[in-house]
Amino acid sequence: MKKIIFLIAAVFVFTTLSAQNPADIAQVKSINATLAKLKVKFDNNSSSLPEAKSTEKLIQGIAETINSITKQIPKGYSLNVIGHASKSGTDEYNKKLGKRRAREVQSRLNTAGVANNTLKIRSEGEKANKRAVTFKVLKD
């Protein structure tokens, strides 16, 4: 019985992976290379961005980049705003903090002209991108 279940799972995974269009995968890699350069940093234990000209300029630049690439995102993929936290705090707290940070950036990007339905919110809690929000196109 275990062998049958394993075989069914293996066939499902293979079918799902092989159904992805290589051109879409290449397009997503290209977009993600551009998005990898974008990062919004936060102060320790904070999900608020300062009301400063430098923050406005950063958000406006990210909004322009996002607006220029959204039509290039293949169907079945979405642009994710991913919140991260530092090592301090519990896993649960860091997940929530990461989500609050991602929502803050999403809100600022909406104000700067990015359509709300363009962005999905994620939190990865404590990861290598400490106290920041990053962007990545991921499969739905």
**Which stretches of 5+ consecutive residues score pLDDT under 50?**
9-18
- Binned strand content: 15-25%
Q: Average the pLDDT over all residues and give the rounded result.
A: 87
Helix content: 40-55%
Itemize the secondary structure elements and their pairings.
Blueprint: H1 2-18, H2 22-35, E1 40-41, H3 53-69, E2 77-85, H4 91-111, E3 119-126, E4 132-139
Parallel strand pairs: 2-3
Antiparallel strand pairs: 1-4, 2-4
Helix pairs in contact: 3-4
Task: Offer a quick outline of the entry.
With 140 residues, the protein is an alpha+beta fold.
Overview of this structure, please?
By secondary structure, the chain is α+β, with helices and mostly antiparallel strands. The chain is 49% helix and 19% strand. The protein has 4 helices and 4 strands. It has a 4-stranded mixed β-sheet. Helix 3 crosses helix 4 (91-111). The longest helix is centred in the last third of the chain and has 21 residues, at 91-111. It starts with a helix and ends with a strand. Mean pLDDT is 87; it is low at 9-18.
